[in-house]
Amino acid sequence: MILVVTAVDAERDAVRKGLPDGCAVDVVAVGVGPAAAAAGTAWHLARAPRRVDRVVCCGIAGGFSGRSHIGKLVIATRSVAADLGADGPEGFIPLDTLGFGATSLPATAVGVPGAATGAILTVSTVTGTAATAEALAARYPDAVAEGMEGFGAASAAALAGVAFSEIRAISNVVGPRDRGAWRIREALDALGTLGPLLATVDG
Ligand SMILES: O=C(O)c1cccc(C(=O)CC[C@H]2O[C@@H](n3cnc4c(=O)[nH]cnc43)[C@H](O)[C@@H]2O)c1
Question: Is the pLDDT of residue 203 over 80?
Fold first, then answer.
């Protein structure tokens, strides 16, 4: 079976709505942020009634300007813990450079026509300035989007030896905070189109 993890109930319900009846896909909401995603994914993997073949992290996301579009889906080729490391006068040093563990985990890119593919960053703080957006885009030239749960869910899946994918729908552009510009309905509608794909994806 496929375990889909979302952050909030609205995302869970959007994904569930598009699923064909009777398919072997369980969709659960585990909370916002990488810690909630890791704990929630691990918990659901441990109590799943059947063997889980793949974890798919789904939700809304901020898209990097020029690399993805509001209301469209993005597919991860990898999940990156973009703010896990050390800061200093010479800039950000990722945790893996410091020798303390991985900050990038592989994600199987499922095929969605028209969707941008690339790294999806996981952050603990939603980016809210042009300077941070530009710094992230420069540090991760392959990044198409940022969310807050992917790396947590991917960490739990990796520990359990389960394949991982991340699919997000763009609700806003990564940059200066402008809550009024978020297009959450459009993004949720895009998540609602994933059902047939999720119902047929292999482990
Ligand atoms: O800034 C606000 O006022 C505000 C109000 C409601 C929700 C938020 C969130 O930050 C929701 C975070 C939630 O959505 C995902 N998400 C969506 N866009 C982004 C983004 O640009 N950067 C990071 N995460 C984003 C994320 O995965 C969370 O689950 C803010």
Answer: no
Residue nearest atom 22 of ligand 1, based on CA coordinates: 126
Rounded to whole angstroms, the Cα distance separating 147 from 142 reads 15
Interface ipTM: 0.94
Structural domains in the chain? 2-200 (3.40.50.1580)
Q: What pTM, to 2 d.p., does this model score?
A: 0.96
CA trace torsion 68, 72, 78, 84 (10° rounding):
70
Ligand 1 binding site (Cβ under 6 Å of any ligand atom): 7, 32, 59-62, 123, 126-127, 146-149, 171-172, 174, 179
> Which atom of ligand 1 lies closest to the CA of 123?
23
- Determine which residue's CA is closest to atom 10 belonging to ligand 1: 126
